[in-house]
Structure formats: structure tokens, C-alpha cells
């Protein structure tokens, strides 16, 4: 894959990830403006994630016979429309509609881009290339969420969504010029191979279940990091810095995860990264009073969690012969269902208990992931 294509894929993933993660930074702004509770505002993450999970496999199936380039370009247009509705929506219900439209489009965009990354990459570097493309998601943490939070603080949260529309337009133009009109199969796949065969269903199910659980654990804490820190005596500007640090961790973790997956294998790297994740979320409440220590724990937490993504993707790809789009769609569905489930749990804890309780739920889910990873055989 050329550097220009790689950049285009990263930017496209970046803007999609930005939409999904942005609510964490502007949660209090949205709730204040719409006169709703923080727990209800947090359900915008749940709605987005569940829509993504349900629509991904269906849309991939419906579009698998069509040219990937034009499918992506049309879907980018739908994605921009949904975010324009988010920016202009006068009520919570209208914004929910915009989130549903944007999420369904995002589901197809992400799966198509990840599948194309596999097709356009050499077999020996696919883990690395998937990790690099996935940097778009972590880059949304590093740059997108903190910048979006700052824009929301300065100009209102709606300006954040207008910015997303603008970046989406740039990504769509780049896709138009960088994607070939015809996509050829990967070097190790027979020409004309369009079907796929799942070789080891139980092993694939293990990887997908880890995706669901680790994202649920992460989302339960990350979605409500703003109220967690504000309840701890911090201001929104300090939350923005924490989100920036989280993004650095996620970007580093994604890149490191791809390289370590190629070197150690999916199972070994998963055991290491999940163990570090569990320890870091358990330390979050203990370090909350000391800002620098808190930032360090947030860095390690996000590095370890995002480091699992390339390992899971490569583990799943190795269970499939032929086209990987459908199995990757199921994995992305599990990812977003996990985000939605975690945001839902976190919302309940925010409403009825304390936001800090979510870290213990996250650690428990992480331990379950660790037990599943220990049973992986292939």
C-alpha cells in the first residue's frame, strides 16, 4: 500500500472515530445546552454504537457486489449528512436521528477500509498495516477529541460537528482520487475470490467476544471521564489535557500492538496488553487526587486497551479463508456493541451511584477477557 493511500485511509478512520468518541469530551456541554442529564447525553454514545453494531454486517452484505470505491464515496456523503443533522438539530430527538444516520454510514466505511487494507497489503505486514490504519481511531483521541472539546468550549458543541463535516469532505475527496476503480485480490488469494470460509468458528468467536468485552470495559470509563474528573475537582480544560494524553496512549498502543502482534502472535500480545489494562483501570481512582499520576495511568490504560485491536483483527483474519469483509463486520459490530453496552452501564452508575464505580466494572470485564484469551488455541 502506498503512503498516500495509507494517509487517506487513516484520515477516513480518524473522522469516523472522532464522531464516535467526541461525546466524551463535550458531554457536559451537550447536557447543559439541551437541558438533559449527563446520563441521558451519554446515551448518544450508546445509540451510535448499537446502530453501528446492528447495521454493519447488514450493509456489508447488501453492498458486497458493488464497486468498493463508489460504495465508500456514497457512504461518506451519507455520513456527512448525519453529522450536519447533529450540528443543526434543535432537540435531543433530532440529534438522535442524526447519530443513527452517521453511525450506519460509519459502520460500512470502517469495515470497507479495513478489508481494503488487507487486500492492498502484503501478508507479512498486514498486522502492521492494520495497526497503522487503526491509528486513525487513536488519532481521533489524540487530536480530534481534545480539539473538538476545545472548539465546543469556545464556540459551542455544535461547531464541533460542523468541523467533522469539513474533515469528512476532505477525506471523501482523497478517497475519490486515491482508490482505484477496480480492486484486485490480495497477493495470497486466488483471483476472483469473493467468497469466504470460516475455518475455526470457535476461535473466531473468542476473539470477537474479547472485542465486545474489552470495549465495554473501556467505554464504561472513557465515556464518563469528564464527570469522573469534574467530580474529582478538575475543570474542563484539565479534562481536555487528559483526553489528549489518552489519545497519545491510544495512538502509541495501536502502532505498538500491530508490531507486537507480528512479532509475538495475537494470543501472547493479548495476554500482555489485557493484563496491563486491568491494572491501570484499577489504579485510576487511587491516582485521581494527583493530576500527574492520573495522566500517567490514563496514558497506560489507553495504550494497553488500544493495543489489543490489531491482535484481535489479525487473530480473526487468520480464521478466515477468502474475503474477510463479513467477519470484520461482525468484529466491528461487537466492538460498537461493547461501546454501547459500556456507555449504558456507565450511565446507570453515573445516575444512581458514582462515576468512579465504573472503573471496577471495567476491571472485572477485563479479567473475563483475560480468561478467554488464555483459551485461544489458534
From TrEMBL:
The chain crosses the membrane at residues 7-28, 40-60, 72-94, 100-120, 132-149, 155-177, 207-230, 236-256, 268-301, 327-350, 357-376. One of its GO terms (molecular function) is transmembrane transporter activity. Keywords: Cell membrane, Membrane, Transmembrane, Transmembrane helix, Transport. Its main location: membrane. It comes from the Bacteria. One of its GO terms (cellular component) is plasma membrane. It is found in: Cell membrane. Pfam families: MFS_1 (PF07690). It is a multi-pass membrane protein. PROSITE patterns: MFS (PS50850). Residues 5-378 form the Major facilitator superfamily (MFS) profile domain. This is MFS transporter. It comes from Macrococcus lamae.
Amino acid at each position: 500500500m502506498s503512503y498516500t493511500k495509507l494517509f487517506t485511509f487513516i484520515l477516513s478512520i480518524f473522522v469516523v472515530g472522532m464522531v464516535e468518541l467526541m461525546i466524551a469530551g463535550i458531554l457536559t456541554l451537550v447536557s447543559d445546552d439541551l437541558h438533559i442529564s449527563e446520563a441521558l447525553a451519554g446515551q448518544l454514545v450508546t445509540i451510535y454504537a448499537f446502530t453501528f453494531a446492528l447495521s454493519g454486517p447488514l450493509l456489508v452484505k447488501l453492498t458486497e457486489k458493488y464497486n468498493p470505491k463508489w460504495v465508500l464515496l456514497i457512504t461518506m456523503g451519507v455520513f456527512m449528512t448525519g453529522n450536519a443533522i447533529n450540528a443543526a438539530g434543535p432537540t435531543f430527538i433530532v440529534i438522535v436521528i442524526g447519530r443513527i444516520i452517521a453511525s450506519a454510514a460509519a459502520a460500512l466505511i470502517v469495515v470497507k477500509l479495513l478489508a481494503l487494507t488487507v487486500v492492498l497489503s502484503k501478508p507479512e505486514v498486514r498486522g502492521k498495516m492494520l495497526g497503522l490504519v487503526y491509528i486513525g481511531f487513536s488519532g481521533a483521541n489524540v487530536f480530534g477529541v481534545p480539539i473538538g472539546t476545545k472548539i465546543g468550549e469556545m464556540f459551542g458543541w455544535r461547531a464541533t460537528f460542523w468541523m467533522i463535516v469539513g474533515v469528512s469532505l476532505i477525506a471523501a475527496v482523497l478517497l475519490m482520487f486515491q482508490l482505484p476503480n477496480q480492486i484486485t485480490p490480495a497477493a495470497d488469494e486466488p483471483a476472483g475470490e469473493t467468497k469466504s470460509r470460516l475455518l475455526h468458528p470457535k476461535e473466531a468467536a473468542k476473539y470477537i467476544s474479547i472485542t465486545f468485552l474489552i470495549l465495554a470495559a473501556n467505554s464504561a470509563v472513557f465515556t464518563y471521564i469528564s464527570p469522573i474528573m469534574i467530580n474529582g475537582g478538575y475543570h474542563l480544560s484539565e479534562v481536555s489535557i487528559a483526553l489528549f494524553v489518552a489519545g497519545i496512549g491510544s495512538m502509541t498502543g495501536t502502532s505498538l500492538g500491530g508490531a507486537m502482534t507480528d512479532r509475538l502472535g495475537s494470543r501472547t500480545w493479548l495476554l500482555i496488553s489485557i493484563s496491563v489494562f486491568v491494572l491501570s483501570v484499577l489504579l485510576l481512582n487511587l491516582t485521581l487526587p494527583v493530576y500527574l499520576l492520573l495522566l500517567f495511568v490514563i496514558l497506560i490504560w489507553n495504550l494497553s486497551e488500544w493495543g489489543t485491536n490489531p491482535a484481535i483483527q489479525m487473530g480473526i483474519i487468520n480464521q478466515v479463508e477468502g474475503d474477510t469483509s463479513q467477519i470484520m463486520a461482525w468484529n466491528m459490530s461487537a466492538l460498537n456493541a461493547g461501546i454501547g453496552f459500556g456507555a449504558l452501564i456507565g450511565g446507570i452508575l453515573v445516575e444512581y451511584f458514582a462515576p468512579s464505580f465504573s472503573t471496577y466494572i471495567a476491571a472485572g470485564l477485563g479479567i473475563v477477557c483475560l480468561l478467554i484469551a488464555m483459551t485461544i488455541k489458534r
